[in-house]
Specification:
- The protein has 129 residues and is of the alpha+beta class.
- The protein has a single domain, classed as Histidine kinase-like ATPase, C-terminal domain (Heat Shock Protein 90, 2-Layer Sandwich), CATH 3.30.565.
- The protein is globular and about 35 Å long.
Amino acid sequence: MAIVVSPLIRSFSPNILEIFCNPGELNQVFMNLLMNAVVAVGDEGKISVKTSLDNSLLTISISDNGNGIEEEKLGTLFEPAFTERDSRIRMRTGLYSSHNIIRKHNGEIKVESILGKGTTFTVILPVNN
C-alpha cells in the first residue's frame, strides 16, 4: 500500500523557544494530528503547520482543507470511542491520548472545523511549565 503525501505548507515562527517537555509524547500528538489530516484530505488536499510564540505560550496549528468534522461530533472528539473502517470496528483513542498528553504538559488542544471545508487543531503549550 502506497501512502500519498499531500502538500505540506509550513509557517514556523523564528522566535520559538525550547520548552520543558517529553518530546516522545509530543511527537505522538503531532504525528496523530498529521495522520488524521492526511486521511481527511486524501491525495487532493493541503495540510499546513504553523507555529507562533505569544506571551510565553507556544502555539502549534495543524490545518487541512479536507472533509471537516460534523458539528455534533466536535464535543466528543477527545473521548475514546469506536470507529468503523474497512468493515472492522476499532477503538479510536488517538485524539483522547493526544488530549491527555497535552493536559499533562499543562497545555490545551482545541479544534475548529467546518464540514466540507476543513479542520484546524491548535495545541497551546506554556514555554515555562
